[in-house]
Amino acid sequence: MADKGGESEGQVTKRAKGSRADRLKLALRENLKRRKMQARERGKGGHALSTGDKTSLDEDGGDDPGV
């Protein structure tokens, strides 16, 4: 086997796991920033539907068709 500069195999795997964890932390942080920005942009829209609106996705106004 090739010697890796005097490092044992355990040290190499710890460093590899650490770098993977760092990459995951960075990716999660960037994802959170992106989602916060999207939420802010959605909140700025003045024409967003609220739950109090009486709009319906049904064409007939939401009445029961079986009645």
The shape, in one word, is: elongated
Helix count, per DSSP? Answer: 1
How many DSSP E strands?
0
Query: Helix content range of the residues, please?
Result: 40-55%
Helix/strand order = H
Largest sheet: none
Mean pLDDT score, rounded?
75
N-C termini distance: 80 Å
Oligomer: single chain
Q: Stretches where pLDDT falls below 50 for ≥5 residues?
A: none
Radius of gyration using CA atoms only: 27 Å
Share in β-strands = under 5%
Structural class of the secondary structure composition?
mainly alpha
What attributes does this structure have?
67 residues, elongated, mainly alpha, 1 helix
Short description:
It is built from 1 helix and no strands. 54% of the residues lie in helices and 0% in strands.
What does this structure look like?
The protein is mainly alpha-helical. Helices cover 54% and strands 0% of the residues. The chain is built from 1 helix and no strands. It is elongated. The mean pLDDT is 75.
